[in-house]
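Because showing beats explaining, we think one record worth quoting, sequence and C-alpha cells together, and here it is:
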Amino acid sequence: MRLLQGSGCEYGTDWVIKELLQENLEAVDLDEAFENFVRESYPDEITVGWMTLDAVSVMKEMDPVSWSCAQSEWESQMSDEDLISFDNGSTYYWRSDLEGFIEGNGL
C-alpha cells in the first residue's frame, strides 16, 4: 500500500513495478528503434539527380503507408522476442535491459 496525496491509499503491486521500471530503465522509442533497424539493414544512401538522401527518409516520405505497415510488423516481431511491456503496449522496454536490471540487483 502507498498513500497518494489527495487521492487516498493505493493497494496492490502494479505501482511498484511501474516505479521500478520508470526509475531504472529507459523506455524504448519505437519510431527511433525501427529507423535504426532500417538504417542498419539499408546503410546506403540514395542519389536522385544531384541529391544524396538517406534511405529511411526516402521510404518514409515516398510511401508512408508501407512504412507504417513495415513498422507494425517489426514491432510485432520484436515484441515476441526482444521487447516487453507491462502496460498492454503503451510503454516498451528492451528485454535485455530488464534482465540486466534484475540480475544486477539480485531480484
User: Anything to note?
Assistant: The helical segments are 14-24, 30-41, 55-62, 64-81, 95-104.
